[in-house]
Fold these 2 entries.
Entry 1:
Amino acid sequence: MTSSRPSGLAPQAGWGKRLNRTLGQLVLELLVISTLNGVLFGMLLFLMASGLTVIFSMLGVLNFAHASFYMLGAFFGFQISRWFGFWPALLIAPLLAGAVGAGVERYGLRRVHKNGHVAELLFTFGLAFVIEEVVQIIWGKSPVDFRVPPLLDFPAFTIFSTNYPAYKMFMLLVSIAIFVGLLLVLKKTRIGLIVQAALTHPHMVGHLGHNVGRIFMLVFGVGTALAAVAGVIAGPALVTQSNMAGLLGPILFVVVVVGGLGSLPGAFVASLLIGLVQTFAVSMNGSLSGAFGPLSPAYEATWLADIWGVTIAQIAPIMPYLLMVLILIFRPMGLLGTRDT
Amino acid sequence: MSEITASVAPPLPAAAEKLRFYASWLAAAIVLLLLPKIFTSGGSMTTFSLIGISIIFSLSYNILLGQTGMLSFGHAVYYGLGGFLAIHSMNIIAADKLAIPLPVIPLIGGLTGLLFAALLGWVSTQRSGTAFAMISLGVGELIASSALILRTFFGGEAGVSANRTKLLKLFGWSFGPQIQIYYLVAAWTLIAVVAMYALTRTPLGRMCNAVRDNPERVQFVGYNPHVVRYLAFCFAGFFAGIAGALAAINFEIANSAYLGAVQSGTVLFATYIGGIGFFIGPIVGAIFVTFLSLGLSDLTQVWQLYFGLIFIAVVTFAPGGITGLLMMHRPLVKAGTLARLLPSYLIALLPTLAMIAGLVLSIETIVHYTVNPGDDPHIRAFGVGFDAASPYVWALAALLLIGGFLAARRTWTWVGHAWDDATSAARDKGFAA
């Protein structure tokens, strides 16, 4: 679920060996590594959330199967890198997944559109279910051996004896490059202009004579291809397994709700926020018993002991959901959201 | 003024209609009583119990989706919490020898569901539509993940178990044998179904429909849609809790799977496949999906794939579900023009079945090569044996799939013409579709 678990926990694993170093160095190391990992996870989330947001704004349907395209990207990438190597896979797998996505829009969603938004959302829900089953049938339930390419399999730099892998830097660079490219396309090109217009006034764009159907198909294809890019680059670093969509999907939807449905800047802020929150949470070992001392023996056997003894690292998986509930209580629109539904 | 009320309010039902209404409930009760006399095996008792639980759960889900227009991806939270509280209270009652019999336990589950729906519902129902769907998903994940962290209460991955026979005996019933559990489930199912039907006829039930159709106008009339959604959510939580408690009693265990996304997805499947537009839809869906999941898993290895494909097919081609499809034909039956439609159905059925057979054949062949490539290629799926290694089988699968698809597309346009023909004839006779 998190990209940060191994290296995020590393400082604690080697705690005993490094007693000779000062606490300040350890905190600094933790801060640097966790920030890097957090930004990386956040950028990966944004690669997916951006496509999801644009698709939602234009088609009015939240693509429940978006995380499934991320998974398809990872598995296509795995298969293609087996046949032709990693670099062709980085290019071909997103194109393939994007083509699948465009096909889904053209032959599935467009037909369901007349049955209403609930039917569209449920169609993508069923699709997510089917994609997971198909992936299980083809690649099995256990994780596949998707390796980091040898070219990038070395430590990029060392901070206070912790090696930071070059592949993670590569992931960060790719996601930032795509982010900048997306920004340029959206802000500087004519297609970007139409997409931007369609975000807020989809009907007007249709009235102006653009082929809205083709734009929809294109946007859906590009959005799912972006998710697949995230899948290909995340596959070797994380676990490539048939449940990866089910694990990441809910967090992705939390990102869009926290950022505000249909808001691209909101999705960006929320992605980074959730990436950082989760990464910092897994590297913290504090608990209530650590802060206030052990629980009195009278309550030892009750369920209070669970809450008392749980560490922040253990509740990291539920942090995004807690954040979402808090945001909804204080700002139901989401951080930067404007639209009501 | 009184004239306006008289023209707006529906006329009071005639005595005969009332009689028919109560007779149908009575008939349902008699059928539930007689079922164990017809199907006597223990296996069918288990199946019927599962169906009863699924009916309550699906109907409670339809209070949200069908009546109030809220698509929830986290309804299993209230089902699961009801189940857990039922198990814990059974253990406490047995340990302290309290004078509480087993049939009351589902009420505890229901109140738990109500309590948590009341707690979590206010935040969840602030917004409707897609935002609500995502929020329900997030809240569902929050509770399901918390269940794995709070191990003492939720029992970790193993769950918490209880012994249902240790409670106070009622009329000499120990509730050990499955048949007694069946009667318990059947009684609660009948009570819950009647209660949920009654709910749809109350002013609140009508306001729920109004909130589903046009929340803005509900505000104009002076109601707060948020409050209406919240109340519907609480009722749905209550009945889901009853279903969860019954499931816990039936299995004598509650584990974190009760709360999870799979459970939420299953109830959504059942409700939608049955049809959300009619009260009876989720009942049909619960029966259909329970039989499907029990039956398909015997017939094929990848039954979940077929399950998903059936769901997609229903969403795409029959958004009204099974009951929606059947009810579409009601004006035609009344007008007597259904006969014009039947021949085209029969013609369309043949290539459609051929296409499905081709699809199944291809899927099973692919499954043979990817999942268990080392096995004997003579495989059986859906009770039919064939050789997955034979090129003839591959050719047959491709022929059935492609040929069936092309032919089916042609024949279904004929069905469309026949449909238009039959409905316009029915409309001429005064039966509006």
Entry 2:
Amino acid sequence: MKKTLILLFVIGFVSIVSSEVSAVLAGDPTESQTTVAIRPPV
Amino acid sequence: MQIGSLIKYHRTKQKMTQSELADGICSVPHLSKIENNSKEANVETIRLVLNRLEIDMHDVEESEVKVEELLNQLLQNMLYLETEKAASTFLEIQVYKEMVPFTKHIYLYEIYKLRYYLFTKDLDFADEQIKWLNAQRQNFSQHESYLLSYFSGIFLILRGKYEEADEKISAILQEYYETNTFEGEIYYHLALVKGYMYQSGHAINYGKKALNFFKDQFNFKRILHVQMSLAINYSQSKIYDEALDNYQHLVRNTEMLKETALLPHIYHNIGDLRHRMGDYEQALHYFKKSAVIFQERTENYLLCLYNLALTEFKLEKWDDSKISFTLLNKEAKEMKVSPYQLYSSYYLFLLNDKKQKAMTFLEEKILPSIEKADEQKEFYRYFSKILAEYYKNEGKYEKAVKYIF
């Protein structure tokens, strides 16, 4: 029973971390390589 | 006019003692009190003292009026971004430099001088001036105090310290009720700062407020700048139609006003917008159009080359991208702009099939060197994401999480 609970906890933790990574990296896999605009003068 | 201080200044300049100057006119203690501005002297005494010093009172009074006129003129020149006129007004004021400390404009003159250093981007002078002005702050009127806070906020923007600038300029809107002449400018600078901080909603809101003021003041150059800021922030918020609309207005207005220096920036930013929309062919077209007319040896030119090379990379035009990144690397090296040297080296590793080496370079060289540079924040975000993606694909989630920004 105790081992099952620990196993469930570990699976839960791994899936949370993994889904967090996927959520942040969702969309176009190369989206991060975007261009940068030139701001108007101060 | 601080007539006593003026008398003391000219007496010491002419190496005259108080008794020499007072001789036959008044007593030495009386002159001393006049010089310290602690006693109102009668007109006749002042006339005799000024005569002995060969100072014409009429000239003195005229100078005070002239200083006031020139300070107002300088302010207008700067608000309307009339670079050459501002430079010539600033020079003209220098003629009265010795007279200014004896007028009521002593601090306003020094505060406008700070604004002029910011206008000409002489940041080291501006830094010194801010330190001096802060030491005098207890003598300032409320208006002078507010101007110093506001101009210090502009200084922080130019130094890339956006959070601090935001705090300083936002506080002005809360603390001072009579921002009058500067209200449009304050909203404009807040729009810039919020844009840099990726708070596009706020940036658009402040931009629209600034636009109303500039329209009322017929400040056409600033109207162009606000349109540029609005377009960038619509683009960042993925409201692409509005962004495109603003850029179209911008191109039209820039050509109409013959503000051609702004054209390469606009073409460049349309390229940026098209890139964000996923329309890479069009993005490339605009980056090329911009690169041809950009003034070389400027940081904006380097940014343009970087975006052009990156778009070629996206379009898998490997040879073209390699040529562009190599050119960027060479130009950045000659200009001693290290971030672009690093970014181009990273892409050149990728283009030469050295992915592992590129990632190590990213992790060990690029990210640590730009981590604390406020002005490279945008690049820090992008390169962190690339590394996070890389480690995610490698199954190294712990490392991937470290680079999620």
